């Protein structure tokens, strides 16, 4: 069992930055690939970014590529999402998620249904 707790959300003006953190409670954090997803009001859940167990491979949605950076610190059991050049359309609840490492991860990192554990979410609001 892995418990995930997100933090770092808030209200920011367009063009600003925020850094989200997701702390995992568990001794096997390095066994898990991690993802960030978001859900805006009235919309479905959307893949944002993902990172493999070692941090060597990262993946991004086209909508955030070049603006967001995912990273992890396995010694601290934490994954991060640095968000720069924020836009009003980035407004959403952001969730981190964990899934056990698999060979298929490089092909399926964007599929939320394959993640086993989810945090409670943190609100990000970008004003225009």
List the helices and strands and how they pair.
Layout: E1 3-7, E2 10-13, E3 18-25, E4 32-39, E5 45-51, E6 58-60, E7 68-73, E8 78-83, E9 92-100, H1 105-108, E10 117-118, E11 122-127
Parallel strand pairs: 2-11
Antiparallel strand pairs: 1-3, 3-8, 4-5, 4-9, 5-6, 7-8, 9-10, 9-11
Helix content: under 10%
Low-confidence stretches: none
Mean pLDDT, to the nearest integer, reads: 95
Query: Would you report the number of β strands?
Result: 11
Q: State the end-to-end distance.
A: 40 Å
Give an overview in words.
It is a single chain. The protein has 128 residues and is mostly beta strands. It has one helix at residues 105-108, and strands at residues 3-7, 10-13, 18-25, 32-39, 45-51, 58-60, 68-73, 78-83, 92-100, 117-118, 122-127. Strands 2, 4, 5, 6, 9, 10 and 11 form a 7-stranded mixed beta sheet that branches. The chain is globular, with a radius of gyration of 14 Å. The mean pLDDT is 95.
In short:
With 128 residues, this protein is mainly beta. 3% of the residues lie in helices and 50% in strands.
């Amino acid at each position: 069992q892995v418990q995930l707790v997100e933090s770092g959300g808030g209200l920011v003006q367009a063009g600003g930055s925020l850094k989200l953190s997701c702390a995992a409670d568990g001794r096997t954090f390095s066994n898990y690939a991690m993802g960030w997803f978001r859900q805006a009001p009235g919309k479905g859940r959307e893949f944002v970014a993902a990172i493999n167990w070692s941090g060597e491979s990262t993946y991004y949605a086209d909508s955030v590529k070049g603006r967001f950076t995912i990273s992890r610190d396995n010694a601290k059991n934490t994954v991060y999402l640095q968000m720069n050049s924020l836009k009003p359309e980035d407004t959403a609840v952001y969730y981190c998620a964990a899934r056990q490492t698999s060979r298929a991860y490089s092909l399926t990192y964007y599929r939320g249904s394959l993640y086993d554990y989810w945090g409670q979410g943190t609100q990000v609001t970008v004003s225009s």
